[in-house]
């Protein structure tokens, strides 16, 4: 045994000697290199990442997960919130080797479905559970009209025709009816249909309500429940127990304030008519509708002695009434209310005659109620209302019974324009944009006293469509916590007005201070959604100087708590007016005294000359401190042009394009000639006939100096009609600096380049090219070779019919030349066919779209030029509009004009469009 131990010891000693010898001969040998690395698997529904360590020659590991957490595990498991995270792994061994590997992980956890449901959030999987044969998918809105004329995603429902087929959503957050029992839904159908909404999986019994759709495309339908429970499942049945097959669309499923059934409410506005002293002569009945004044037979809720009553007769689909007014109503995007009583649910159309805009809301069919029609989304439809039209279930035949009878009372103008009653609307005051925060970052904010300003992504674009917003939070315990918004440049200011769009969840007294001048105003927010607040500094005249920043403070002197209740989101700060004039300081360009403010010692307007004798005209009217010029139309030679006019001499350069802009209004609707030309020469080729209305309106004309030029040429306004008055103000003339170019629009091939200074190709339709895309959509569209408004023989032609929305479009033009956040002018000539005028609900819509670049995640942004206009003249008229592009126009812009009809069997009409242009402002 001992010998064996000695033998092994000798062997061990010999081994040590060999190792020692080898070690001495290889002092520079390298140790195995450490290589760090990992892969991972991701559970997209939970954000849970399982890391798989693939490092080599390492024994120790240090993980940094990119959110402040770390680990020393070999294969850790980590759960993230939505976001991007840079993860690093440092691997090492005991011999001192070390290596680091990094990778970026993007986490997008699908959000659960919750109210409001609008189908536009890419992080929400709008997976509906279907049953009974129905199919559901999310698609782009196929019909930009009616109550949903916005490019967005919508839900498409395809009924197979089976009994009781439907679909439901499981909600991530319960729908609580404790305070709001009404659900509003944007729904599309081309046939009248009932929709049943059932609320299930709740804290109480299931609840269901049926709403009727009129079959006229996009309509708002509402479901008012009596339950006050909370529910986690919403189920829809289109046609309930019926077997109606077809395709339907749904959008904007929203919980709203409960319709106030059985109550008569005074919105606090001006009473238009309470029918106490009216007689039947105030009604203009049409299509089988009959309006009368009746005695009130039940005064327990509505105590009026007299009421209005409207009956839709048997078999009539378009039977309505128009209520005459004592005098026209000056109106701009406000709200009306009307008290109604009906025994059945009726979709009651409320139309403002003279403006051609309308809304449809349901009656409850249960008792007296006050319905409020909000026209805040049609800002720009400023003008006079000449009457109010009511139509029940437009497109559905009545039967003259009590089910087709509505009693009504107390029509009120609750709000008008920007003043009150307009919570939740975003309005553009028409002034210069100070900041829309689309390209800003947090560095623009100077925070003080515990206030924090940041730039955030807009989480809800249903009202305010901006991609970015500013947010201000008042911190916990802070009484003087505010923010100051920096400016790109100081603003020269004198006693004007600013506006700001704000959204708050609580009523807050919002201080708005002009730094540099030390003046401030405090106005309350509504606490009920987006609204535009206007701060009027007109009473602080004399505070002229530079505004260096704008400070906001919520409830100055009251401590905040940093919660949602002490958070305001805001956007679109605008300088609406400055000094005594409307809008920014007036710039008359190449003219002098374009606002008629400068008078000589005799009180006459300087620079401007009157008529053929070049006499100096005298002003006859003012608006506050603003002088404007009135031309009395008393031509010595009626019908002879260029005898009754006002003009100013200025240099005109041959071949240049000019923008002539001016305000005008008249005692009656009439036409005038406006243009440029030689003194004593021909203006015919360089002027336009402009239709002037009784409402003060801004007109902008693009005029080419065609074949003439002279240092003593003129800008001229001429009237050669019957006696009367036309008022002219704020006249400016600029050489058009638009760069033009940028592609031809909707087609390729033989589509020519746009004219110099223009962005739209073939605007006069004379090229007979592929520039224009034509969409029949139930009607018909064509390039007419027989109708034109000068300069050729062609025009675009659209004919509509029941349920149709034909249109013409140029798509994605001006790529690379149209600038973001820039105002452009769109103009076109239009007329209705005298043998086929717009009838029975046919309306004109015109839109521009800011198109994002290919591959962008940004949606196209719609700009409304005109919407729901049913009053297109049978004579050629020039329509001119402005719009401001969105922040992303990498894909250029698109122009769409359509003629939309509802469900009325007699709805239709034909229009022609010519001389379409888009130019820089």
Question: What keyword list fits this structure?
Answer:
921 residues, globular, six-stranded antiparallel β-sheet, 1 helix, mainly beta, Immunoglobulin-like, Jelly Rolls
Explain what you see.
By secondary structure, this protein is an all-beta fold. It has six domains: 38-107, Immunoglobulin-like (Sandwich), CATH 2.60.40.10; 129-256, Galactose-binding domain-like (Jelly Rolls); 270-415, Jelly Rolls, CATH 2.60.120; 434-577, Sandwich (Jelly Rolls); 609-735, Sandwich (Jelly Rolls); 773-920, Jelly Rolls (Sandwich). 3% of the residues lie in helices and 48% in strands. It contains one helix and 59 strands. Strands 18, 20, 21, 23, 26 and 28 form a six-stranded antiparallel sheet that branches. Strands 29, 31, 32, 34, 37 and 39 form a six-stranded antiparallel sheet that branches.
What share of residues is helical?
A: under 10%
Beta-strand portion reads: over 45%
CATH class of the largest domain: Mainly Beta
By secondary-structure content and strand pairing, the structural class works out as mainly beta
Q: State the fourth-level CATH superfamily of the largest domain.
A: Galactose-binding domain-like
Report mean pLDDT, rounded to a whole number: 81
Basic shape: globular
Cα distance spanning the termini: 110 Å
The whole-angstrom Rg is 34 Å
Q: How many discrete domains?
A: 6
Kindly identify the CATH topology of the largest domain.
Answer: Jelly Rolls
Please identify, by name, the CATH architecture of the largest domain.
Answer: Sandwich
- Low-pLDDT regions: 13-27, 418-424, 580-585, 737-749
Number of strand elements:
59
Assembly category: single chain
Describe the main β-sheet briefly: 6 strands, antiparallel
Number of helices: 1
């Amino acid at each position: 045994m001992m010998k064996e131990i000695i033998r092994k010891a000798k062997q061990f000693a010999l081994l040590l000697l060999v190792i020692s010898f080898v070690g001495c001969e290889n002092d520079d040998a390298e140790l195995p290199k450490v290589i760090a690395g990992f892969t991972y698997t991701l559970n997209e529904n939970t954000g849970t990442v399982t890391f798989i360590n693939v490092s080599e020659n390492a024994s120790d590991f240090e993980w940094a997960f990119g959110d402040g957490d770390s680990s020393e595990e070999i294969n850790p498991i980590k759960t993230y919130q939505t976001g991007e995270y840079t993860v690093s792994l440092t691997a090492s061994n005991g011999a001192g080797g070390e290596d680091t590997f990094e990778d970026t992980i993007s986490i997008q956890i699908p959000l659960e479905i919750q109210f409001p449901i609008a189908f536009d959030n890419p992080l929400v999987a709008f997976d509906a559970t279907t049953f009974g044969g129905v199919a559901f998918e999310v698609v782009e809105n196929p019909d930009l009209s009616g109550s949903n004329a916005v490019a967005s995603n919508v839900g498409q429902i395809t009924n197979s025709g089976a009994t009781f087929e439907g679909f439901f959503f499981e909600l991530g957050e319960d729908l609580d009816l404790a305070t709001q029992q009404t659900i509003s839904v944007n729904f599309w159908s081309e046939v009248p249909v009932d929709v049943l909404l059932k609320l299930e999986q709740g804290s109480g019994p299931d609840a269901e309500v049926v709403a009727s759709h009129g079959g006229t495309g996009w309509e708002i339908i509402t479901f008012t429940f009596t339950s006050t429970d909370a529910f986690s499942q919403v189920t829809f049945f289109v046609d309930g127990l019926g077997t109606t097959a077809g395709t339907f669309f749904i959008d904007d499923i929203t919980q709203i304030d409960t319709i106030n059934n059985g109550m008569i409410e005074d919105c606090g506005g001006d009473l238009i008519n309470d029918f106490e002293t009216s007689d039947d002569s105030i009604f203009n009945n049409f299509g089988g509708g009959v309006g009368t004044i009746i005695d009130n037979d039940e005064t327990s809720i509505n105590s009026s002695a007299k009421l209005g009553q409207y009956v839709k007769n048997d078999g009539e689909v378009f039977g309505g009434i128009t209520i005459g007014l004592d005098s026209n109503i000056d109106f701009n995007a406000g709200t009306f209310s009307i008290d109604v009583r009906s025994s059945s649910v009726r979709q009651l159309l409320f139309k403002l005659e003279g403006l051609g805009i309308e809304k449809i809301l349901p009656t409850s069919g249960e008792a007296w109620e006050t319905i409020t029609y909000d026209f805040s989304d049609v800002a720009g439809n400023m003008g006079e209302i000449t009457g109010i039209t009511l139509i029940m279930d437009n497109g559905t035949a009545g039967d003259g019974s009590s089910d087709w009878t509505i009693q009504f009372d107390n029509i009120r103008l609750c709000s008008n324009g920007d003043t009150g009653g307009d919570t939740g609307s975003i309005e553009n005051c028409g002034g210069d944009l100070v900041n829309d925060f689309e390209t800003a970052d947090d560095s623009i904010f100077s925070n003080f006293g515990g206030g924090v300003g940041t730039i955030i992504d807009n989480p809800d674009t249903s009202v305010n469509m901006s991609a970015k917003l500013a947010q201000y939070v008042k911190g916990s315990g802070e009484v003087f916590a505010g923010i100051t918004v920096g400016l790109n440049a100081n603003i020269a200011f004198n006693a004007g007005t600013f506006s700001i769009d704000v959204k708050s969840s609580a009523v807050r007294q919002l201080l708005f201070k002009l730094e540099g001048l030390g003046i401030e105003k405090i106005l309350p927010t509504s606490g009920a959604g987006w609204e535009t607040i206007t701060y009027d500094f007109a009473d602080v005249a004399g505070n002229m100087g530079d505004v260096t920043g704008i400070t906001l403070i919520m409830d100055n002197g009251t401590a905040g708590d940093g919660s949602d209740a002490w958070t305001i989101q805001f956007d679109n700060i605008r300088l609406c007016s400055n000094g005594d004039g409307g809008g920014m300081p007036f710039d008359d360009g190449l003219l002098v005294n374009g606002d008629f403010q400068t008078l000589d010692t005799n009180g006459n307007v300087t620079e401007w000359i009157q008529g053929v004798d070049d006499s100096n005209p005298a002003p006859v009217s003012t608006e506050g401190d603003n002088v404007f010029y009135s031309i009395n139309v008393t031509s010595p030679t009626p019908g002879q042009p260029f005898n009754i006019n006002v003009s100013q001499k200025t240099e005109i350069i041959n071949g240049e394009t000019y923008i002539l802009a001016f305000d005008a209004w008249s005692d009656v609707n009439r036409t005038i000639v406006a243009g440029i030309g030689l003194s004593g020469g021909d203006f015919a080729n360089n002027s336009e006939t402009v239709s002037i209305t009784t409402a003060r309106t801004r007109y902008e004309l693009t005029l080419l100096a065609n074949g003439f030029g002279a240092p003593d040429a003129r800008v001229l306004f001429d009237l050669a009609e019957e006696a009367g008055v036309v008022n002219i103000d704020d006249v400016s003339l600029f050489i058009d600096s638009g760069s033009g170019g940028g592609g031809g629009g909707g087609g390729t091939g033989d589509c020519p380049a746009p004219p110099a200074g223009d962005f739209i190709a073939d605007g006069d339709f004379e090229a007979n090219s592929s520039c224009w895309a034509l969409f029949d959509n139930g009607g018909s569209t064509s390039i007419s070779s027989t109708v034109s408004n000068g300069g050729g023989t062609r025009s675009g032609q659209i004919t509509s019919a029941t349920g149709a929305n034909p249109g013409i479009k140029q798509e994605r033009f001006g790529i690379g030349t149209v600038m973001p956040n820039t105002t452009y002018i769109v103009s076109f000539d239009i007329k209705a066919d005298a043998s086929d005028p717009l009838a029975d609900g046919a309306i004109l819509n015109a839109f521009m779209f800011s198109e994002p670049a290919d591959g962008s995640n940004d949606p196209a942004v719609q700009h409304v030029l005109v919407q729901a206009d049913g009053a297109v003249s049978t004579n050629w008229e020039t329509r001119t509009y402005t719009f401001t592009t969105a922040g992303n126009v990498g894909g250029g812009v698109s122009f769409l004009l359509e003629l939309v009809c509802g469900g009325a069997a007699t709805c239709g009409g034909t229009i022609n469009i010519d001389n379409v242009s888009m130019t820089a402002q």
